[in-house]
């Protein structure tokens, strides 16, 4: 599936990984929200954890068609994601995001905390209130 990406942390415009991974590879970037997910602070980056009732702000990034496969592979490496690997910190899953106008949902790839990581964060992690990585400071 060639889905756009929902980015909520260091890949957002103005954050340090945006230019390293996305500059020149995207067709569009637009503000969106994802429901039923919350953010936890990590060591320099956030973790999205699926949780009913939460809302996270981010951007919907649509890759240029000719850049899609390379970008997908680069983001999987950045997030240390390998399909089926029990050591993953993140899992790449398809979820719906809501456009800023609230009228349309779009299916997108998002990297969420892997189950073991999510359990640790729920038990003793620091939640980012408001669901916006940029508001953490």
TrEMBL record:
It comes from the Bacteria. Residues 5-134 form the Gamma-glutamylcyclotransferase AIG2-like domain. CDD domains: GGCT_like. This is Gamma-glutamylcyclotransferase. It holds the Pfam family GGACT.
């Amino acid at each position: 599936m060639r889905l756009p990406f929902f980015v909520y942390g260091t890949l957002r415009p103005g954050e340090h990984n945006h230019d390293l991974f996305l500059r020149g590879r995207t067709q569009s970037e637009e503000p969106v929200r994802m429901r039923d997910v919350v953010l936890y602070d990590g060591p320099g980056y956030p973790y999205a954890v699926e949780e009913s009732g939460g809302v996270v702000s981010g951007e919907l990034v649509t890759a240029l068609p000719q850049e899609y496969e390379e970008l997908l592979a680069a983001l999987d490496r950045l997030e240390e994601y390998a399909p089926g690997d029990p050591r993953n910190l993140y899992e790449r899953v398809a979820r719906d995001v809501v456009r800023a106008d609230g009228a349309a949902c779009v299916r997108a790839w998002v990297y969420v905390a892997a189950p073991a990581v999510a359990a640790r964060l729920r038990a003793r992690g620091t939640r980012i209130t408001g669901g916006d990585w940029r508001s953490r400071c």
